[in-house]
Structures are given as C-alpha cells and as structure tokens.
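Researcher: We plan to redesign the surface later, but first we want a full-length starting point. Tokens attached.
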C-alpha cells in the first residue's frame, strides 16, 4: 500500500509499517510492538495516534482508498454525470480485482471471527464509505441525469453490487487471475447500462 503525504511524518511511518506488517503477517500476528519497532517509534507514540490496532488498520485502508482518487473522479469537473459514473465504475472494478485489495479482503474474512472489530473497521473505511459518497452524488445529480432515485443509499448499494458481480468472487476464489483492462471495462459498462436502465425516470 502506497505512502500518502497527508499525515505528519511519524504517522506516515506508523501507517507504512502497519500496512507492510498486515500484508506480510496478517492482522493477528502483526502486533503493535512489531509495527512500532518497524516504524522506528515507541509503542506509546503509536497509541497517541491510534487507539487500537483496528483503528490503525482502518486508517491504512482509508489512506489506500484516498490514494486511488476515485472520489475526485466521481465529483470531477466533467459536466456529464453519466460520464463520471462510468469512469468511477471502471475504477471501482479495478479496485475490487486488484491483488492488494484481494489479499486484504481474504485477510479480513479469515480473521474477523477472532477480531470482530477488524471487519467493522474495514466495512466503515471501504464499502460503507464508497456507498455513502456515491449515494450523495446520486442524490445531488441523479435527477438532472434523468434518474428517478427515491433511496440514494439503496441505489448506491445496487450499483456497487453490480460492479462486484461474479468477477470479484472469481478473483477472490482464485478461479480467475488479474483481469485485463478490456474485461474490467466490459464489467463496468455492463453494470452502468443495467443501473441506468433500472433507474431511468
């Protein structure tokens, strides 16, 4: 997971060390002691910035989400909302099938029974955050784009479900390896067409 310049240097050090530890060892074995040592800071310094290891994981996921700039795509300057929606859809399918995302999903699913807050933290910082941002854009621009949306949250969930589809499951189960750009665009385009057909006023 890439470094982000938005935090102070020590916070960046901690998040970089945490991301590397989670990816290499998994959530459980990646202790706060290990993360602090690899970050070159004290354990007390870690806890002045993050209340728990779950909070640290949530910050890592949120940083990765922001790094992809999909919020900027969705709220960009292009006047046509449908064009922005298509670009965002393509980016989301790329995220869903990305090797790093896939590894994180597998880790969260495997370890959530032992660490329930891990699943909640991941849900808040990734799926729920994306759904809320899309819902806000649908509420603001849906009518002008010719869409009849009574419940933006449900509509956003419907659209994201279409984007996940069978492809993400195939990648998660290693039935299909990293899809190429044509496959990703095809899945995104199909989801957009179905969504617009379902919600067209």
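Model: Full-length starting sequence:
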């Amino acid at each position: 997971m890439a470094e982000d310049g938005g935090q102070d240097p020590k916070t960046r050090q901690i998040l970089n060390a945490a991301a590397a530890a989670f990816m290499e060892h998994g959530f459980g074995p990646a202790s706060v002691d290990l993360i602090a040592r690899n970050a070159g800071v004290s354990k007390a310094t870690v806890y002045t910035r993050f209340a728990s290891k779950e909070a640290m994981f949530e910050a890592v996921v949120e940083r990765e989400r922001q790094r992809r700039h999909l919020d900027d795509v969705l709220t960009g300057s292009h006047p046509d909302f449908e064009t922005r929606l298509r670009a965002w859809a393509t980016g989301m399918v790329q995220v869903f099938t990305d090797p790093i995302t896939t590894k994180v999903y597998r880790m969260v699913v495997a370890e959530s029974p032992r660490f329930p807050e891990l699943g909640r933290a991941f849900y808040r910082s990734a799926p729920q955050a994306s759904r809320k941002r899309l819902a806000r854009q649908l509420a603001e621009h849906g009518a002008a784009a010719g869409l009849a949306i009574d419940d933006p949250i449900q509509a956003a969930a419907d659209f994201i479900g279409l984007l996940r589809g069978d492809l993400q499951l195939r990648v998660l189960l290693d039935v299909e390896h990293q899809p190429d750009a044509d496959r990703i665009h095809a899945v995104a385009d199909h989801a957009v067409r179905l969504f617009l057909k379902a919600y067209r006023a």
